[in-house]
UniProtKB/TrEMBL annotation:
Residues 86-231 form the F5/8 type C domain. This is Sushi, von Willebrand factor type A, EGF and pentraxin domain-containing protein 1. Residues 15-83 form the Sushi domain. CDD domains: EGF_CA. It comes from Soboliphyme baturini. InterPro entries: EGF (IPR000742), EGF-like_Ca-bd_dom (IPR001881), EGF-type_Asp/Asn_hydroxyl_site (IPR000152), EGF_Ca-bd_CS (IPR018097), FA58C (IPR000421), Galactose-bd-like_sf (IPR008979), Growth_fac_rcpt_cys_sf (IPR009030), HYR_dom (IPR003410). One of its GO terms (molecular function) is calcium ion binding. Disulfide bonds join 841-850, 879-888, 900-917, 919-928, 960-969, 998-1007, 1014-1024, 1035-1044, 1073-1082.
């Protein structure tokens, strides 16, 4: 077997040390990061340090050049950076040397009681200055200090005053006699939290004893608390002073409370106002949320809206925010969601119902209903969740309508609906709206002034209009209807009237007739007429040949005083010459024979007058006692008889849109009815709730809906619109409303589409309200009034007044509240807010009457085990040995006698003889005297089986196994980079390996082996062809499918017509036809007229199962025979 190399040719790559690790405070000179070969073997750079740090140590080559070595590491040797010792700033004015109260002064000689200048220290209650042209606080620090930090906060809480500065200016000097110098930077504080603490680093530092803080801008009041930090200045020597230019950029951080208070009972769900029996809102009441703090005491709780108290009359959804603060400026909010229960539906107004007029004749018209196509106005104070249309679309034919209901749902699932209707109508005065009936011709032109149309409709021969005219004219003006009415026109065909002779024969009988005898008599009389008919025809044919033919025989019985059988024998007289003389002559002849008063003439009809019955029939024989005859031209049911003067009468079927009122009149269907058939005796009623616009409607599509209860239109039919607000449907009718009635006797309503007067309500009285302003109503709550009637809400009294009881109807009911009812203790001030009295307390006091002294030690303000001692409005901390400061927050500096090796820095800790060496990177141990090995105890440093190799200063290198690379052996080498898979197959990288997703038809490690896709043969009824990546089956006739396994059904398309049965054949089909049809597809009816010859020039017409002879005028025959 032959083999070959694939992929890229092997190469030797230059060792790369990677980016050098960063050593603290170091500078790498001659290191060009843009050079692609910067990290290769042989590269180097100079090691130096940032000022004021000094480079110490050497590389392995004995210099300060760091080189990339053959083992892939950088040679740092023991190079590192060392710095100078930095003095620490500390708080000024600590408890070991406290500042006296006299060291503080402000811009006013009369300070606010409780907010004196000496209380401006951070651990006190705070100072508030009086507004002036220049507001300041001055402090004598008692000694000269180098100051490094200024911390400032405001004054918050439940006391009389709150506020904080938003912009400060710092002034300073060393000696009292000097002028103040201005610090070059102003200090800005933008928070709205009065207790937020701001720490400002003084860069540059300043040397000063006297400090003046100027309040340039403030929020609420010019109130503040502050502290200063720095180093005590020992000498005025300039070189000594320069020492402090190298040092820490700030004081050591202090421990402050970072945890905000916690509300224990803040309601998570909304609180809804309750409703009274009338559904009106009553004032909301709930438990005020309580907060706790990790310090032991919450400084104060603020509310938004300010001074919010329960119970509270909520008229709209609102949030009440309770903010709890601690003395470190941390805060937490509790938001109480007050909601008005929304049980009122949204307001929704639909457009008026309307008609869509089309200028062209179209089969249907599609309409879509949504807020972009329909002008629906819907709103709700809570917002709308959904507005939907039902139906959202419609397809209308001419004169059809659709009722659309629009429903609005608010965010509380209240819903309200309105309705409008749309009718599709043809535009007036269009030629196509005047429908020309069959057997007619329509001709239209513009009228002389071209302001409308004029059309003439001409009937074909043998047809005429209902009014017996053969031509009619119709006119219309543009935008107006046709005159005469545009009712669809119907023509009537003329049929010859038949001459009917009827003989009514009365037979007296005795006894009771058998139930079957009447039918038996009819059969006997029919049989007798077969014999008598020929004799009667001969008697009438004296002048011209006349045929007398039996039409109908009916038999009935009566039993009033005498039992009788009455038979009506109807015959048709058919002379060969259509002349009224021959009809009348035959009628006279027949009448004479049936006249029993004339002797010796009844012989031809004697069998009809004396009917002999067989005994076996069980029916008595009949003997006539009386005869009556009737004759004349008449028509069938639904036809009317029309006389044409000298011509013979004609029979006309009453056309659609009419009914037969009597034998001579077809009458148009009245309003509310229609008739879609010819020759009917009455009209059909429109469906319930519908009617017609005009008389003579020809189908149910002309039945339009009437306006129902709560709606109206000028015509009483669609399109209808809802009764406007303040009106309702009359009660004297049930449908077809054309007007709406107004509420009477000073009553009103607020909804549209009302169906009765029961929705009319009286307005609310003074001192009352409701959501609609109409009854039922509720009284205005306490501290509210309403002087007008029919109102939806009440007016709140001024904040410093109240009402004695609910239902106030005048502003005079709002009575002022006076402070003489309570006495505030401990110099608290009485104030009236939100219709109630309260005391505003000085700092350190609380309670309804300021009668409680607050325990400042509850917040545990002393650090390092200091003991808190409560004072009247403040506290002091008694510090243990080794600690000092206002809060015992500072410790003696143990680092003065401690040496931390290898550039480590000593950190003084609270307590006696406590410190910590902060070692630089690469060293560890109590005094930083142990070199740190990063590979020890850190098994996960080098991943995927890599080996860790340590170097100086915490540096290390990972030696990676085959298949891995990267600083921590975290990168899997891409074995797919050489594209080992043939045929563009997808390669999957594995660890030191790869796999290929081969395309169909190939296999092997690299997809190099071809697979025969035709083995085993997948084609069941065909031949397989391998197409490299797929196969294809060549199917035999009659088979299909991917694998030629599906037989072709030639009958699937149902090719046989007229009920023929399809039989599937291989590559074809065969139709088995019924006896009525023939042809390969059963498409041809069998011709029943083959071999048939109708008599007297009759025409044969083939039917589905038989034939029929159509006789010429003057001949007749029976169905399915050759007779004519």
């Amino acid at each position: 077997m032959d083999f070959r190399f694939t992929g890229s040719p092997p190469t030797c790559e230059l060792i790369n040390c990677g980016e050098p690790p960063f050593l603290r405070y170091a500078i790498y000179k001659r290191l060009n990061m843009s050079d692609p070969n910067i990290f290769n073997y042989g590269s180097n750079f100079m090691f130096d340090c940032q000022l004021p740090y000094i480079a110490t140590g050497k590389s392995s080559s004995g210099d300060r050049t760091v080189r990339c070595q053959a083992d892939g590491t950088w040679d740092f040797g023991n190079l590192h950076c060392e710095g100078v010792e930095c003095p620490l700033s500390e708080k000024i004015g600590t408890s070991s040397r406290p500042l006296p109260d006299t060291a503080f002064m402000s811009n006013t000689e009369i300070p606010f009681l409780g907010y004196e200048p000496h209380k401006a220290q951070m651990h006190r209650s705070g100072w508030c200055g009086r507004e002036d042209a220049f507001i300041f606080l001055s402090i004598d620090l008692q000694k000269v200090y180098v100051l490094t930090t200024l911390r400032v906060t405001g004054v918050g809480g439940s006391g009389k005053l709150q506020g904080h500065p938003t912009r400060l200016q710092l002034f300073y000097k060393v000696a009292f006699a000097q002028n103040f110098d201005t610090y070059p930077i102003e200090f800005n504080m933008q928070s709205s939290n009065d207790n937020d603490i701001y720490s400002f680093t003084l860069n540059p530092t300043i040397r000063a004893r006297y400090i003046l803080l100027g309040v340039v801008e403030f929020e609420k009041n010019p109130c503040l608390r502050f502290s200063l930090a720095g180093c005590e200045f020992q000498s005025a020597d300039a070189t000594k002073e320069a020492k402090y230019k190298v040092g820490w950029n700030d004081t050591l951080p202090i421990c402050v409370d970072s945890l905000p208070p916690v509300f224990q009972d803040c309601p998570e769900k909304p609180i809804y106002s309750t409703l009274d029996k009338n559904g009106q809102i009553v004032p909301v009441n709930f438990e005020t949320p309580k907060a706790v703090d990790n310090s032991g005491k919450v400084a104060w709780i603020d509310t938004d809206p300010p001074n919010f108290q329960v119970p509270f009359f909520v008229t709209n959804d609102m949030n009440v925010t309770y903010t709890a603060y601690d003395y470190s400026g941390n805060s937490v909010k509790c938001v109480v969601q007050l909601r008005v229960p929304d049980n009122q539906p949204p307001e929704i107004i639909c457009p008026d119902s309307y008609s869509i007029f089309v200028d062209e004749e179209i089969p249907e018209y599609h309409i879509v209903f949504n807020q972009s196509t329909v002008d629906v106005k819907a709103q709700d104070p809570s917002g709308l969740k959904e507005v939907f249309f039902s139906p959202w679309h419609a397809t209308l034919k001419l004169r059809e309508y659709v009722s659309v209901t629009v429903t609005a749902i608010d965010n509380f699932d209240n819903s309200n609906s309105c309705m409008f209707q749309v009718v599709l109508q043809p535009s007036p005065c269009q030629t196509w709206t005047l429908v020309a009936p069959d057997r007619s011709t329509k001709t239209c032109t513009s009228n002389p002034g071209k302001t409308g149309l004029k059309c003439t409709v001409q009937c074909q021969t043998g047809y005429r209009f209902l009014d017996n005219r053969s031509e009619k004219s119709f006119e219309c003006s543009y935008g107006q209807e046709w005159a005469p009415s545009f009712i669809p026109i119907r023509l009537i065909a003329e049929n010859p009237a038949r001459f009917k002779f009827t003989a009514s024969i009365t037979y007296p009988i005795s006894g009771v007739l058998n139930a079957n005898c009447l039918k038996t008599y009819e059969n006997v009389l029919y049989a007798l007429m077969e014999k008598v008919g020929g004799v009667l025809s001969q008697k009438c044919s004296a002048t011209v040949e006349v045929l007398v033919q039996t039409l109908e025989i009916t038999t009935s019985s009566t039993s009033d005083t005498v039992s009788r059988v009455i038979s009506n024998v109807s015959m048709q007289i058919l002379p060969t010459v259509a002349n009224e003389v021959f009809y009348n002559l035959c009628s006279l002849t027949l009448g004479t024979m049936f006249d029993m008063a004339i002797p010796n003439v009844a012989a031809p009809v004697a069998p009809l007058l004396n009917v002999d019955m067989e005994v076996s029939s069980g029916c008595p024989s009949l003997k006539a006692s009386k005869t009556t005859t009737f004759s004349g031209f008449n028509c069938s049911t639904g036809e009317v008889l029309l006389n044409f003067g000298e011509r013979l009468p004609k029979c006309v079927l009453c056309p659609p849109g009419t009914y037969r009122k009597n034998e001579n009149d077809c009458v148009q269907c009245p309003l509310g009815t229609y008739q879609d058939e010819s020759g009917q005796m009455k009209c059909k009623e429109c469906p319930l709730g519908t009617t017609t616009f005009h008389h003579g409607m020809v189908n149910s599509t002309y039945c339009v809906a009437m306006c129902q209860n709560g709606t109206f239109s000028t015509t009483g039919v669609v399109p209808c619109r809802s009764c406007p607000v303040g009106t309702f449907s009359p009660t004297n009718i049930t449908a077809g409303f054309t007007t709406c009635e107004k509420c009477q006797n000073g009553t009103f309503m607020v909804v549209a589409g009302s169906k009765s007067s029961s929705m009319c309500r009286k307005p609310c009285d003074v001192g009352e309200y409701s959501w609609s302003g109409l009854q039922p109503c509720s009284q205005c709550p306490v501290n509210y009034y309403q002087p007008n009637t029919g109102q939806v809400g009440c007016i709140e009294c001024p904040s410093k007044t109240y009402t004695a009881r609910p239902g106030a109807n005048s502003s005079a009911d709002c009575v002022p509240i006076k402070c003489d009812k309570i006495k505030c203790e401990n110099d608290g001030d009485c104030e009236v807010l939100d219709h109630s009295i309260r005391c505003r307390c000085l700092p350190g006091f609380s309670g309804i009457l300021c009668e409680k002294t607050e325990n400042a030690c509850l917040s545990q303000p002393c650090f390092n085990g200091g003991h808190c001692i409560q004072k009247k409005d403040s506290f002091t901390c008694q510090c243990p040995a080794g600690s000092y400061g206002d809060l015992c927050e500072s410790s003696l500096n143990e680092c003065k006698t401690v040496e931390c090796h290898n550039g480590g820095v000593c950190h003084n800790l609270p307590g006696v003889n406590t410190f910590e060496c902060l070692c630089r990177f690469g060293y560890t141990g109590e005094r930083c005297d142990i070199v740190w090995n990063p590979c020890e105890g850190n098994d996960n440093l080098c991943r995927n089986g890599g080996t860790c190799k340590p170097f100086y200063f915490g540096l290390y290198k990972c030696l990676c196994p085959t298949g891995w690379s990267g600083p921590h052996c975290e990168v899997n080498i891409d074995d797919c980079a050489e594209q080992p898979c043939a045929l563009n197959a997808t390669c999957h990288d594995l660890v030191n390996d790869f796999s290929c997703d081969c395309p169909r038809g190939f296999t092997g490690k690299r997809c190099e082996t071809k697979v025969d896709l035709c083995k085993p043969d997948p084609c069941r009824h065909g031949q397989c062809v391998d197409k490299m990546f797929s196969y294809y089956c060549l199917c035999k006739l009659g088979w299909t499918g991917v694998n030629c396994d599906t037989g072709i059904d030639d009958c699937a398309s149902a090719p046989c017509h007229n009920g023929g049965t399809c039989v599937d054949r291989e590559n074809g089909f065969e139709c088995h036809c019924s006896s009525e049809y023939t042809g390969s597809l059963c498409q041809h009816p069998v011709d029943r007229c083959v071999g048939v010859q109708c008599l007297n020039n009759g025409t044969c017409r083939s039917g589905v199962k038989s034939f029929e002879c159509l006789c010429e005028d003057g001949f007749y025959g029976t169905s399915f025979s050759r007779d004519c």
